[in-house]
Amino acid sequence: MASRPRYVTEAVEFVSNSLVDYLRHASRYLCALILATPACLAQVSQFEGRPITDIRFSPSQPLDPQDLANALPLKKGEPLRSEDVSRAIDSLFATGCFEDIVVEAEPSGAGVLIRFVVQNTWFVGGVSVEGKTPSPPNRGQIATTAQLNLGVPFHDADVTNAVKSIQHLLEENGLYQAQVEPSVERDNNAQQVFVTFSVKVGKRAKYAEPVIQGQTRLSDATILRATGWRIPIIHWWRQVTDSRTRKGVQGLLSKYAKEDRLHATVEIKNLDYDAQHRRVQPHLDVNPGPQVKLTAVETKVSGRKLKKYVPIYQEGTVDNDLLMEGKRNLQDYFQNQGYYDAEVEFRQLPPQDDLERIEYVISRGQRFKLAHLALSGNQYFDTETIRERMFIAPASLRLRHGRYSEAFRRKDEENITNLYRANGFRDVKVFSSVERDYRDKPGDVAVTINIQEGPQWLVDDLHIHGVSQIDLKDLTSNLASSSGQPFSDVEIARDRDYLLTYYFAHGFPSAQFNATWQVDGTPSHVNLVYTIKEGNRQYVRDVLTSGLRTTRSTEVNRQITLHPGDPLSPIQQTNIQKQLYDLDIFARVDTAIENPDGDTDHKYVLYNFEEANRYTFAVGVGAQVGRFGTPNTQSLGSPAGTTGFSPEFSLQVSRLNFLGLGHTVTAQAVYSNIEKRGSLTYLQPRVRNVSGQNLTYTILFDNTLDVRTFAAKREEGSVQLAEKFSKSLTGLFRFAYRRVSVSNVVIPVLLIPQLVQPVRIGMLSGTLVQDRRDNPADPHRGMYNTADIGMSSKFFGSERDFARVLLRNSTYYQLTKNLVLARQTQFGVILPFSPPVGLSAQESVPLPERFFSGGADSLRAFGYNEAGPRDTGAPLAPGGPASAPTGFPLGGNALFINNVELRFPLLWQNMHGVLFHDMGNVYSSLGDISLRFNQKNLQDFNYAVHAAGIGLRYKTPVGPVRVDLAYAINPPDFIGFKGTPLQLLQCGPNAAPVGACQPVQQNTGHIQFFFSIGQTF
Length: 1017
Hints:
- The two termini are 47 Å apart.
- This protein has 1017 residues and is an alpha+beta fold.
- The strands form nine sheets. Strands 24-25-26-27-28-29-30-31-32-33-34-35-36-37-38-41 form a 16-stranded antiparallel β-sheet, with no helix packed on it.
- Helices cover 20% and strands 38% of the residues.
């Protein structure tokens, strides 16, 4: 909270600056008035009537030739008249491009030469801040504090005032040693001035022990802790910032608020700076005020509910408006609980013994239930359309007593009336009737909304007058009040906004609109007349950019679609600003029209840039808890995975605006127990300057251990073109060349050289994404579809040949206002061809390229990547003996999964519940896909596994926190092996002694538990 002297100082500065600006502008017109007097025009008047031989400006004039011609009534060859000179002076000053004008006349042959000796106006072209400026304040705050707005007239005194304001800002943030050196650079092009503030901040001051005045009723130590100006335990003083100073005052007020002292005031009288020790000592004036006790009489209401509905605690103060709002809130609360006749009043008792009592007198009356709600007389709109706009609602599972109050009823009547009037029913009448003891049941209430629609008013004919510079067809194509359409004030207002916006976007800033209508011969039919005064049209004189240092001007110019001679469209100007921000290389893009108030039709459009920091760093620390599939070559005892904990660390370094082209280079690394990944990405956005068309080059190394059977290693280089075809449709086209291999292999069968040797994969693929969800983080309506198709072939340098297709379809249905049905179906297939010698078609697909599924985001009947075919034992070599089965997952070449969720509110506003059913599996091949429920035998994994469960969703700013508990109805059984790989190798036709081999029947488990962020799909 700022001190009173600061407010006084700022007020004085504001008044003085405003007065100076007023006198400065007034002096222009005063000068014009003086020059127009007979005494000042004596020199001109002596040449009265002589022909004008030439008109010159000294030293030069900045106006566009067309604007100059419009401003000067004086013309070559015409006789000189004093009144024309006066008008010329007035017109030139009105352009805003001149600070001073003096008119001189001298003989020139038989005529007269007129010379305008002028002092041109300078305009702010840009403000920049140099030097190391540790935040706070940042460069943007410093530039804003200078109050040198882009495009406005500039005066030397503005720099002095800006330095004072910046110095004040720096001192508020503890930088008392800061020095601010301004430099001014003038550019005759468009009369622009560029101001640079060089800032040397020095060291930031720290707080000192505050001086506390007033009857605080708290100890000094408690007050100090509440301000947060000193670090607890170690007692080091924090550095001074304006935000921290204000938070300190607010923290002390919050401390008093916790003790119900809502009248407390805390004021910083001043901040004394000790330059020798670099300390700032705040002087606090504290008045705690009396304690406030809020109670309810006649009706018992908990203190928690009173604090919730009476906003004096949220606002931290007590005034009549807040108490009245509390009265309305409590009345609405009781009426929503079924006490429709509830009356609430409050009384504020005088303070006594350091205590102020506020009592709410609540008379609940009888409790009712809105048992029936009906609509009568509606024909144009169906009942559902009207009910969507109503707040009162009958009793239901969620609303045990319904939702009703007199205020709600009146508001619903008003909403229905507005709905009809907006559609041409100007004479509609809406009233309601309330029936107590409905159907002779005490306490039940029935409400009937009666609607007398009346005739619908229609537009017979629409005429638009005053359009001369715009094609009339462009205006009429989007009007709401065309012939045959409903006639209403709402539609007229919509047309007004559309027409004025259209004119504004096409260079007519002063366009005006007026609508009149009269009844036609047919009742309820009108003829409508729109009259438009277009005013002068403004044009772009030129587009000027400044502030670019690293960025190439060609990258900026490609985004600027306004060109000299185009109509001046502020809407297009703002859209360009947005496009420039979308480049993600600028911290600030300011745009303005130079000399906006000047009476000229040709304006400069200005863009001033502050480039963003070129390097960004991001460090992340997290952890995963779940049933992981980390390989363990020492034990084969848990083929279905084990619960584990994996800390995760990530680092990302980005270089923005690489080579000034707007490209981005990003290096990223992730390290955890189950994944080690490093990547280098080069992003080239807006290929051929097409928005939404981006080209990405990536080099990737990834070593993932999330499959229990093996660890997958991938070394990849790829190029991807992303293109946004429409708002909802995006395409991704990529070519990837990678080397995939496996390690930590735990199943002896995988010791076959053809299965474990590294494989090169060259794949050309494309993905189409259609997203029509209303909210991607938590959808309630719409659909989400993806189609991913790829081809790996020797033609692309691949050592394996196969085609891969993965399709996904998700839909979301809002059954009721609070009930959402979500479903998702996934289908995938890998079709191998031309397998290498010694491998079947199915085995030719490398293990890391196969489908693996199961987990929180796919099939919740399994742990992560635990679905699909498993090791059932196989020959260790072609024609050799078979190994014992281990039950470890091997992945598959086909996939089918279907998820269904019913999402509903559960507790409070942020807690929701989910009932879900998942079914499907990963299959050996396309021909093995089956929706059978039962497993044929312990070697059969090609059937549909089902899981049902419940879940909780808690809404957060980053998406819902998700907890799911699933019960797998028919999980697969399989033969596993408890022992070591060495013991497994001894199992065969010539097995070791009894007991060396320990195959046991196992399954993936019925219960699965998941914790994550975001919806399942």
